[in-house]
Amino acid sequence: MIDYGELEALRTIGQPRSSHWPAVEKAHLAESPACACCTTASSTAKQQVHHVWPFHYCIALGRPDLELDPRNLITLCEDESGAANAQDHHLLVGHLADFSSSNIDVVEDARSVFHGMSASAIRANALWRSKVVQRLRPLDQMTDEDKAAFIARMNKELPRP
Fold it and tell me: 82: phi > 0 → left, psi -120 to 50 → alpha, else beta; which?
């Protein structure tokens, strides 16, 4: 499976994930093994640990601590099988259908707004479509104002311990 986060990090900030990531990922999945958006388990979906605040944005914008911070993690399913009933909440809810972007409202969206919805229902949802249009710009396309707003919200929602 392709690690889109790793690819985006290499492309935008020129460095890979922390060497501590595999242990943090394993611990998170042991604590939270189910997709936060699903109501039933899929036999074809793999559970992914998704960063609420994209780790490469955090690194580039002065908060590298958030790459490994459990407060910044949520479990979402990823199904690349192509099956008609595939949910792929990682792509749809975590990244708003674009792995180069992210949904920083993913916790609320997964646990309440889109909770239990199928992929087709999510794609048809007017709120989801409006979120797609307004999704987070890729890091290398953000203006200084975008970055300042991102940093302010990130530090408010996830203050340094």
Answer: left
Tokens read off for 133: 């249009």
Per residue in 92-149, pLDDT (tens digit) is 999 999 988 899 999 999 999 999 998 899 999 999 999 999 999 988 899 999 999 9
pTM attached to this predicted model: 0.88
Radius of gyration of the chain (CA): 15
Q: How many residues are listed for the chain in this entry?
A: 161
Give the Å distances, CA to CA, from 74 to 18, 46, 71, 111: 18, 14, 8, 10
Contact by Cβ (8 Å): 96, 134: no
% of the chain with per-residue pLDDT over 70 = 83
Handedness of CA 35, 41, 43, 44 (dihedral sign): negative
Burial of residue 75 (CB within 10 Å: 0-12, 13-18, 19+) is buried
Q: Alpha carbon of 148 to those of 12, 64, 115, 154, 157: distances in Å?
A: 18, 16, 31, 10, 14
